[in-house]
Design a protein that fits this description.
Elements (H helix, E strand, L loop, with lengths): L12 H13 L6 H13 L9 H13 L4 E5 L5 H10 L4 E6 L2 H13 L5 E5 L2 H4 L9 E6 L6 H10 L10 E10 L20 H20 L3 E6 L5 E6 L2
Parallel strand pairs: 1-2, 1-4, 2-3, 4-5
Antiparallel strand pairs: 5-7, 6-7
Helix pairs in contact: 3-4, 7-8
């Protein structure tokens, strides 16, 4: 079949936006406290692009329920929106462990959880490269969401795989676990290195992020223990299933 680019599906960007809005309206509904919090963060923070979209969150909830997810690791909490989504997905008997390097972000997230009566999220403050390995237990997690520092993605994947050895009684992730990585195409700069647009504060940060994401993408695609589907939607989302 001849390859058809995504941009060719819709004649204009306006039509693409209308189609996206229509799709969101015809997908599973998000609770009011989640959409209200997303709107609040979007309105008051200049860095709100660090949040996932409501539409992407609909996918996360669908996947969590399809995979029977009850325990989630959220790597990169920011101000708590994604953790709220996973909290809703797993239900009151489930649990979300959020890893966040910024005490300020973590405090804002915890305040939002308390304000909305959410009590199944634990926020762990610190560098995820140090806190993630400490989550190994005899009750492994069912899913992980990577949405933190992009240069660190490849290292986090090594820790997740290394901490989830086949047959091990204590591990990070259970066999068949769901793994989701966000921002894997980074505004199109990953598939097209020649792009001149820049959303980074420095060229060094741009270089580090793009090199880290390419290393992560290649690592995941080559890993025999992972079933991988990379979706060219939003900022690029990779869905994976851990094989034992």
């Amino acid at each position: 079949m001849k390859h058809t680019s995504i941009s060719a599906i819709y004649a204009t960007s306006e039509l693409a936006e209308k189609s996206s809005d229509y799709s969101e309206a015809h997908s599973l509904a998000l609770p009011r406290h989640i959409t209200d919090y997303h709107a609040s963060v979007w309105a008051r923070r200049d860095d709100s692009l660090m949040m996932s979209s409501n539409q992407q969150s609909q996918l996360h909830i669908f996947l969590a329920r399809a995979f029977g997810v009850k325990r989630v690791i959220d790597v990169g909490v920011f101000v708590g929106y994604s953790a709220m989504v996973w909290s809703h997905a797993v239900g009151p008997q489930g649990h979300v462990t959020g890893l966040e390097i910024s005490p300020e972000f973590a405090r804002e997230a915890d305040e939002a959880f308390a304000a909305n009566g959410i009590d199944n999220i634990e926020t762990v403050v610190g560098d995820a490269s140090e806190t993630l390995p400490k989550l190994v237990s005899d009750t492994p997690y069912d899913a992980v969401f990577l949405d933190a520092d992009k240069p660190g993605y490849a290292g986090y994947m090594e820790q997740l795989l290394g901490g989830s050895q086949p047959g091990a009684a204590r591990r990070l992730l259970r066999p068949g676990a769901l793994m989701v990585a966000d921002n894997v195409l980074r505004w199109g700069h990953i598939p097209d290195p020649g792009l001149t647009t820049s959303y980074w504060s420095s060229e060094e940060l741009k270089r580090r992020e793009l090199e880290g994401l390419r290393r992560f993408n290649d690592r995941c695609a080559a890993e025999p223990r992972l079933e991988v589907v990379m979706l060219p939607v939003w900022d690029g989302v990779t869905l994976m299933r851990l094989l034992d």
